[in-house]
Amino acid sequence: MATDADTCDLLCLDLPHAEEVRAQLTASQSNERALAERARALADGSRLRVARALSLGGELCVCDVAWVCGLSQNTTSHHARQLRTAGLADSRRDGKLVMYRLTPLGARLLAQLLDDEHVRA
Q1: Less Cβ around it within 10 Å: N or C end of the chain?
Q2: pLDDT per residue over 58-116, tens digit each?
Q3: Non-local CB neighbours of 115 within 8 Å, separated by 6+ positions
């Protein structure tokens, strides 16, 4: 809901500057969906916790992540899969185990979100 502090009292459009910004926005529009999906992947508290656990532990199996995060294995697997789908985590099968780790992109995004340069990929 807009308040008086949120809107201009008169229409004051700086057309050349506004058009320049608009052109840049339009040029990057194709990336916005992917960026929104990545941001959404970390917007859930459980997924953020899973990502932080992977950051701290490096590569972890789903069982370990579930125990660390205090989640069921099914819930952990679901959230880890969503991180993988968003390109923020990778997985590999090691015999009967499924191992997850953050991708470099996932580590960078998490570090930016946490404002912490010590997040590991």
Answers
A1: N
A2: 999 999 999 999 999 999 999 999 999 999 999 999 999 999 999 999 999 999 988 86
A3: none
Quote the tokens at residue 34: 């992917």
C-alpha 53/C-alpha 48 separation (Å) is: 9
**Whole-structure pTM value:** 0.74
Residue 110: partners with Cβ closer than 8 Å, 6 or more residues away: 42, 51, 52, 55, 88, 102, 119
- Write the CA distances from 86 to 35, 41, 83, integer angstroms: 9, 7, 5
Residue ranges and CATH numbers for the domains of the chain are 15-114 (1.10.10.10)
Residue 26 pairs in a beta bridge with none
Distances in Å between the Cα of 68 and the Cα atoms of 38, 46, 52, 77 are 23, 12, 10, 13
Task: Name the β-bridge partners of 91.
Answer: 100
